[in-house]
Amino acid sequence: MLGAMMLSKDAIADVIETLRSTDFYRPAHEIVFDAVTDLYARGEPADAITVAAELNRRGEMARIGGAPYVHTLVASVPLAANAGYYAHIVREKAILRRLVEAGTKIVQLGYAGEGEVDDVVDEAQAEIYSVTEKRTAEDYAPLKDIMEGALDEIEAIDSRGDAMVGVPTGFTDLDELCSSCSLSRSKSAFRSATRCSCASRA
Questions:
Q1: Residue 129: band (very low, low, confident or very high) from pLDDT cuts 50, 70, 90
Q2: What CA–CA distances, in Å, run from 146 to 88, 108, 152, 153?
Q3: Count of alpha carbons within 13 Å of 23, Cβ hemisphere only?
Q4: Considering only CA atoms, which of 80, 87, 71, 79 is closest in space to residue 9?
Q5: Are 83 and 4 in contact, with CB atoms under 8 Å apart?
Q6: How far apart, in whole angstroms, are the C-alpha atoms of residue 54 and residue 196?
Q7: Is 3 in contact with 74 (CB distance < 8 Å)?
């Protein structure tokens, strides 16, 4: 899968929708994944040569086994188009590993028998929930971090006045209706998000 990412930008896009670097079992693969995704985020090519250069720049080439290992990853790819499928396999294995770790902790809690039984059960449940919550928690940002940008965007739309927003259809009345609805929905969504944020702090 890492080799596929170094062969195709589309493969990178498919994989980063599913995986995070912590999903990899081997530290070397985590390091290569970080290098590839960092290059991709900067809009730079992420092939075997540029990834090797990035790893050298970071001083991490020796940790993955040297430049030949990067080329081995590329050479081992059957089909770059299958990267998304490979990513799902890696993700499933990562979840199973976390589940085993959570199970081990729960066994230890049971044998230790410390504290109230209800508290031990709560802690055991929290371990199980953390297996999936770790995954979803990384995909969301706190409202306070995105609110300012959303407000700026809404104000920019509002400041256009009667100017067309989006792609014109060729039908003036329909264009005006769509622009009006778009602004109305944006303001409504922002007000709802603000109310939810305030309510959660109450």
A1: confident
A2: 29, 41, 10, 11
A3: 24
A4: 80
A5: yes
A6: 43
A7: yes
**Complete DSSP assignment for the chain:** -HHHHTT-HHHHHHHHTT--GGG-SSHHHHHHHHHHHHHHHTT---SHHHHHHHHHHHT-HHHHT-HHHHHHHHHT-S-GGGHHHHHHHHHHHHHHHHHHHHHHHHHHHHHH--S-HHHHHHHHHHHHHHHHHHHHHTT---HHHHHHHHHHHHHHHHHTTTS--S---S-HHHHHHHHHHHHHHHHHHHHHHHHHHHHHH-
- pLDDT digits over 4-36, tens only? 999 988 999 989 988 888 899 999 999 999 999
The owner of tokens 């769509």 is 178
Distance (Å, rounded) from C-alpha 135 to C-alpha 202? 27
Return the amino acid letter for 10: D
d(CA 76, CA 70): 10
Give pTM, 2 decimals.
0.59
d(CA 15, CA 88): 8
